[in-house]
Amino acid sequence: MEAFTLAVAKGRTANQTIHLMKKIGIIFNNFTSSSRKLVFYNSDKTIRLLFVKAVDVPTYVERGAADVGIVGKDNVLESEADVYDILDLRIGQCTFAIAGKPGENLNKEKPITIATKYPTITHNYFSKKGKAIHIVKLNGSVELAPLIGLADAIVDIVETGNTLKENGLVVLEEVEPISTRLIINKASFAIKSTSIQPFIEKLRLGLEE
Amino acid sequence: MQPFLINSSYSNVIDDFQQQEVLINKLKHRFKTYGYRQIKIPAFEYYDMYASINGIVNTDDMVKVMVPKGKVLVLRPDVTIPITQVMVNHPTTQNDRYFYIMDIFRYHDQANQVNERTQAGIEHFGKKSATTDAEVIALAIHTLQDMGFIDFKMEIGHAGLFKALISLAGLSKQELIHLQNFIQSKNIAELEPYLNSLEIDDPLKELIRNIPFLYGLPGDVINAIQKYGLQENMQAELQHLIDVYDILKAYQLTDYIIFNLGLINDMDYYSDIIFQGFIEFIGEPVVMGGRYDQLGKQFGASIPAIGFAYDLQLLERALQRHELLATPTTISDIIVYYHPSMQKKALTDTLHLRKCGYVVLSFPDQENSLTTSACTIHYQKDSCTLINKGNSYQFHDITEVQELLVMQEGEV
């Protein structure tokens, strides 16, 4: 079988993926969650596994550096990568939401300011609603922005809501559900179909169990 | 240099241009062997023409220019549309074949940068037939083979089939865009709940839900879609795809063919068979095309046609990735150095060699020792010497040099 490359987001997604792979009989022998290695092979060397930063997974797949990727839908949407978004792996489930101080009005007449790690998603969501906003792009600790007046609200992924609660913020509006996705390079899908199609099928069956 | 004058796309214009020339010559040659003639159209077009044609090029993406009298022009954002317009005023015979190598200009996303891309493509004007459509696809495959690619696939789909299916569903424009996005990205996870939220008959829903799976070996795809009991007109379109595939069998190109009935081209003018070519490691199609029999009607004429275009920048990326780029050629075959007193003879001989087709550079007395060549000729006050691959030969007349060069080339 033709070998292919799989890029997986580092961190929690990586551990969940290894677990899912084990379930469908694909074993990565040398993998331990504490390892700092970035490249692994499965037992029969038909899959090369790369660990990359989550935001970079769609780029790896779109540019063909990896044939297949496993990453949260938030990163797929933000990158607007031209790839097949073929399977919902039903792990890493959470929600995209607008959050702010309790009672914050999102429908004010003048444009509100939104702080986010996801400017593209935020822009697309508000322009679909026909609402003008200002975006402040941050790279972390987004919850801080409304507290110190950097922004009126934030757009971020919310899993348990604990971080929001501890910082005195509440969900004001849900944008859309997020989960971990299997994405595929369009050329690889055409050219390496003999190895990639069975892999997708195995995963699909594995998920139904 | 002033820093703001640096344009990153100028980074390697010299070598890149040479390599692009090699590529373009290959494409031109192959297009010509199928009977296509090159054409060129103006870079500036009337904005009104594009604005009046339904949803083909987003008017925001076009690069506009105001002329003093107030008319708005655009830099050519597409090639097929203006060529079709030219054909309206041009008495066409059947089987008119043209090819082009032209740049198109569009604004790139929100970056506010003009994106200039070179397209190399063909347009074949003439009535729809399986033989024509198959030959056009065969030509696209043939050019990819010329460039040295081995691992590539041509996905064949049908714009009309998809449109006919969707029209049965009676969706709003917004709903259609959503649905197309899900189908294009094979996003089954979201396609299903979205379809369930729409008011569509169950059998049709089932068919639309399965469009992303109508992908793979032609035989399998045809069998899969037959299960849904298509309407007569769709059945005819499907038969056309089968006929085209049968002819591609005769061309012995079936190894490269995949059917993808979920294929949707963003250019809305395609009405029948559509196709796109993928090369390993390049996520975007390097070549796209299809039949656009209805486009002429927007200009008030019936001009059935099929065509395709290569994106040269993507092709170059693919060639580079597969290490198939032409190696930059050495600048000269022969370098002539001469003593000032021998200038007349040296320059006369240089001219003679150039007339014979050699690339020759000439310099007075080793003034330019940076340029090197395997073959040099030295005109000293009292003797003339040819040094070729380390061996030196004395000569009197340039015809002796010519003979020596021809002889030694024969040995290689």
TrEMBL record, chain A:
Give GO terms for biological process.
L-histidine biosynthetic process
EC class name: transferase
Q: Which transformation does this protein catalyse, written as a reaction?
A: 1-(5-phospho-beta-D-ribosyl)-ATP + diphosphate = 5-phospho-alpha-D-ribose 1-diphosphate + ATP
Q: Which Pfam families would you find in this protein's record?
A: HisG
Report the domain of life of the source organism. Answer: Bacteria
SUPFAM superfamilies, from UniProt?
Periplasmic binding protein-like II
Checking CDD domains in the record gives:
PBP2_HisGs
Coiled-coil region: none
Q: Which InterPro entries has this protein been placed in?
A: ATP_PRibTrfase_cat (IPR013820), ATP_PRibTrfase_CS (IPR018198), ATP_PRibTrfase_HisG (IPR001348), ATP_PRibTrfase_HisG_short (IPR024893)
Q: In the Enzyme Commission scheme, what number(s) does this protein have? A: 2.4.2.17
Q: Which HAMAP family match?
A: HisG_Short
> Regarding domains, what does the record say?
Lacks the C-terminal regulatory region which is replaced by HisZ.
Q: What is this protein called?
A: ATP phosphoribosyltransferase
Species the sequence originates in: Virgibacillus salarius
